[in-house]
Structures are given as C-alpha cells and as structure tokens.
Amino acid sequence: MPLLPFLLFVFVSSFTPGPNNFMAMSFANKYGFKKTIKFCLGVAVGFFVLAFLCSFFNLLLINLLPVIKAPLTILGVGYMLYLAYKTITSKDDNNEKNEGNDKNLFIIGVLVQFINPKGILYGITLVSTFILPYYTSYFSYFILSLFLGIVGLMSSSCWSLFGSIFQKFLAKYRQLFNIIMALLLVYSAISIVFH
User: What does the pLDDT average to over 85-92?
Assistant: First the structure.
C-alpha cells in the first residue's frame, strides 16, 4: 500500500470540515467537552463498523465481478479529485447549531455515520483504493477499520476540544487552508494512478 498517499487521504478526509467535525464542535459548544466525548466515541465506533462493512462489500463486488476493480479505483480517484474541488471552492455555511440530547450523543455519533454521504463515500473510496488491492485477510480489514475508527475519534475530539480555535483559524485563513487540503487530495489521487 502506498503509505503516504493513504495517510494523507485519511488525514485530509478526517480532519477537514464535515458533518462529524461540525457536530462535534457544535456539541462541545452546547454541552462541553466532557459530554461531547460520548459523541466522539460514537463516531469512532460508527466509522469502524462502516469501514469494516465497506471492506466486505467491496471484496464481495471484486470476487463476484473481478472487472470491477479498475472502475472502483477510477471511482475512488475521481471522488478524491471531486473532494479536492469541493474543498477549494467551499464556503463557511455552517452557522446553525445542532440540536440533540446530551444523553444520546453516543448513539447519534454512531448513527450519523450511516447517513453521512461524505463518510460513506470516504469508506468505499478508502477501502477500494488503498486496502483491498494490498490486503486479503479479514484480520487486516479489522485492524485497518479499527485504525480508521481511532482516527475518527481523534479528529472529532480535536474539533470539539479546539472548536473555537479552529473556527477563528478557518475564518481568518480559510482559503489558504482549503488550497493546502485540496492539493494534498490531488497528490493522493495522482499517487494512486501512478503507483
């Protein structure tokens, strides 16, 4: 597996603004960091399950239809380039507060993974592009899914802990931040094509 493009894609996709991170930041503003940890743990568990399911779904597709491997890779690279475009052209439009009961934050964190298009496409892209071409054991899928869950925990925790700092940074340097994140996504996509 091309490790640097894999890690860049995971970092950019996990730590850039998205539903999980915006919700973590919003819940931290509403309930405080301690209570928001429940949500962050829910994100980790939900994304672990989602990544593991994506591994089996993609493996099933590749085993049933071996010709689908190339289209899945092309789809993954295309999605990464699309994310780069969306990142560089994004505007700050998340001014609304997320509502929720602080007792259900863990369940919200788990369930939001299965209705979050960014997370689902990220999981499918990551698995089909970086995991299935290089690993064949179920244990590998489990370990990599666990790693992705931990990264999800780290990113949502960072956004909740440093939410106000990130808000100020993004407001002041948003365009520069978006350009850097988009370039890292393009580099990851190009590395997949030429690896």
Answer: 73
Expressed as residue numbers, the domain containing 77 is 3-194
Is the pTM higher than 0.90? no
CA–CA distances in Å: residue 140 to residues 3, 9, 56, 192: 15, 19, 12, 20
How far apart, in whole angstroms, are the C-alpha atoms of residue 117 and residue 115? Answer: 6
Q: State the Cα–Cα distance between residues 89 and 183, nearest whole angstrom.
A: 13
What is the spatial distance between Cα 107 and Cα 125, in angstroms, rounded to a whole number? 25
- Token pair in block for residue 20: 């999980």
pLDDT tens digit sequence for 157-187 = 998 887 656 666 666 777 887 787 678 778 7
- Number of domains comprising the chain: 1
Q: What is the DSSP string of 84-148?
A: HHHHHH------SPPP--GGGHHHHHHHGGGT-HHHHHHHHHHIIIIITTT---HHHHHHHHHHH
